[in-house]
Amino acid sequence: ITSAVAFDILPLKLHPFSQSTPTGLDCIGWKRRISSPVIADGALDKTALTDDMGSDEDLYEDFRSSNHRYGHPGGGGEQLAINELISDGSVVYAEALWDHVTMDDQELGFKAGDVIEVMDATNKEWWWGRILDSEGWFPASFVRLRVNQDEPMEDYPLKVEGGKEDDSSSGTRRFGMGQTTKDQMRTNVINEIISTERDYIKHLKDICEGYIKQCRKRADMFTEEQLKTIFGNIEDIYRCQKKFVKALEKKFNKDHPHLSEVGSCFLEYQTEFQIYSEYCNNHPNACMELSRLTKVNKYVYFFEACRLLQKMIDISLDGFLLTPVQKICKYPLQLAELLKYTNPQHRDFKDVEAALNAMKNVAQLINERKRRLENIDKIAQWQSSIEDWEGEDVLVRSSELIYSGELTKISHPQAKSQQRMFFLFDHQLVCCKKDLLRRDILYYKSRINMDDMEILDVEDGKDKDFNISVKNAFKLHCRDAEEVHLFCAKKPEQKQRWLKAFENERRQVQLDQETGFSITEVQKKQAMLNASKQHHTGKPKAVTRPYYDFLMRQKHPTLPTTLPQQQVFMLAEPKRKPSNFWQNISRLTPFRK
Question: d(Cα 245, Cα 241) in Å, to the nearest integer?
Fold first, then answer.
């Protein structure tokens, strides 16, 4: 079965509309029929969907029963082109946008910047690829196709660090049937930066004019708060990117693209790009709100009508809203590749080098804030699993679990020793006791305010304060009182990890103060509410894949059972599968550093 036939027989995902990409609204009478729900003055004709178009079900059947195909049914011409290249015997390389961390031996793990040979792209969500001698499935959304496909794999470093090659090479490389220069490679990268930026502007314009503008006309369907949740500050991003692309085009040398000096543009806009932080932090909320709305048919039809009227490609709204998240993480990779093909004597070299570092910092800042916000849900879930909790919630003062582990705590007056589990958050150390029979159950015992403490390394031998012999010990001493806590680890390396963790905790607190990072009260309350619901109802089951995957098993091992998690950033670890980490304390390792 060919891939084209397979996609026609068994669609990859259930969707009420055709997977084709209409080239115009006058096709098969759609212009006349769909123009009525979304009209210029903002009022929706209440009878439009029933009188002119028939019922909701009729519209549903019209979209489904249309046999007219435009473009590639698998989700775009790019995927079709990849499969044609592979079937012709060509080697196709992709570059990782983000880390893909997996414990599944059928999946291919990699780091951001790794180069993957794409061996099968017939599945829209998961591709089959190879790195050195390892093969496996990986999420297609985690990679981008390499710009210079003709460059030999052996000449391309697996990791691009700082945009510089692992080996010193001449400015000329041989590939294909002829020879090309470093300038030609630089031309390819410059052209990609300019073309993808123009495409991105078109995406942003379509969202703002095709969706937001129409949604604002429907006050009966959307509140301003809902629109803010769904679209975030994407209009601010659109305005910023319009200015940025104009600056890029001014620096673009059409006659000799390799002479273009674009590095200064990225340096000029590095501060403005920080507006992506707000958007990325809000993106999970947008996905949840969209998921809630699209359970109602009228919203599904409305969003599809918006897409068709704007003549947008066949991507769902949540796919369009993911684009800014992907874009800000793509800049460092593009600049690293540009620097690779920029001679040190080039007038743009220093600016590109500085721009690469600047955009890495921007992406890292955004990623870190995103990760911290995601962590508050984990912390809330962890607290909800602790028995006999007393006092304020952890999230009142903390937003990061720095380290956790088992220690022996020695207390006055009789130097009584107790085995306890300790969890070091920013600002506080929480002490818990394991259940005697069920070791996966923890009971809350106490907490220590780390803002008042100083850490003292204790040498092995007799301690004067407690009058006992200790090994692998350290103390927490209160600066303003006579309060002293003595702790012992089982091994010297465990003690060193704890001492390092206390340093990291103070560093994290200072960094948060400098950057102004904070969690809003609304976010804290929502996290605790979500944790409370999950504690009572249990975790949701994993989403099962479509039956189409059966065809793929004939060629490769089983496809991964979960859909790729796209709401991640370059430096973040994707959430692969639901984990009952609060039921087993050993699964709290994602918190650790």
Answer: 6
- Nearest in space to 118 (alpha carbons), one of 100, 136, 99: 136
The answer to whether 279 and 233 have CB atoms below 8 angstroms apart is: yes
Distance from the first to the final alpha carbon of the chain: 48
Q: What are phi and psi of 37, to 5 degrees?
A: -65, -35
* 8 A C-beta contact, residue 205 and residue 252: no
Contacts of 302 (CB under 8 A, 6+ apart): 37, 38, 214, 218, 221
332 and 201 share one domain? yes
pTM of the model: 0.53
How far is residue 100's CA from residue 142's CA, in Å, rounded to a whole number? 8
**Measured on CA atoms in the order 431, 435, 440, 443, is the torsion positive or negative?**
negative
The answer on pLDDT for 160 being more than 90 is no
Range of the domain at 485: 400-516
Residues 239, 374, 393: CA angle, nearest 5 degrees: 125
Structural contact between residues 121 and 82, judged by C-beta atoms closer than 8 angstroms: yes
- How confident is residue 43, by pLDDT bands cut at 50, 70 and 90? very low
Evaluate whether residue 343 is within a structural domain: yes
Distances (CA, A) of 337 to 191, 482, 526, 586: 12, 58, 41, 40
Q: Are residues 136 and 216 in the same domain?
A: no
Nearest to 208 by CA among 317, 59, 45, 92: 317
Q: Are residues 186 and 309 in the same domain?
A: yes
Residue ranges of the alpha helices (H) in 217-316?
224-231, 234-251, 263-269, 276-293, 297-309
For 128, the enclosing helix (H) or strand (E) is strand 126-131
Please give the mean pLDDT across all residues of the chain.
75
User: In one letter, which amino acid is 3?
Assistant: S
Strand pairing of 428-434 and 442-449?
A: antiparallel
| Rounded Cα–Cα distance for residues 308 and 394 (Å) | 47
CB 182 within 8 A of CB 172: yes
Residue 504 in contact with residue 403, Cβ under 8 Å? yes
Report yes or no: 314 and 20 within 8 Å, Cβ to Cβ: yes
**Does residue 201 sit within a domain?**
yes
Closest CA to 547 of 127, 76, 123, 142: 123
| pLDDT (tens digit per residue) in 177-217 | 333 578 888 999 999 999 999 999 999 999 999 999 999 99
Q: What share of the chain is helix, strand, coil (3-state, %, to 5)?
A: 45, 15, 35
Question: Of the candidates 390, 365, 369, which has an alpha carbon nearest to the alpha carbon of residue 520?
Answer: 369
Assess contact for 215 and 227: CB atoms under 8 A: yes
Give the type of residue at 64.
R
State how far the Cα of 253 lies from the Cα of 245, in Å rounded to an integer: 14
In a domain, 540, yes or no: no
Q: State the burial class of residue 161 (Cβ atoms within 10 Å of its Cβ: 0-12, 13-18, 19+).
A: exposed
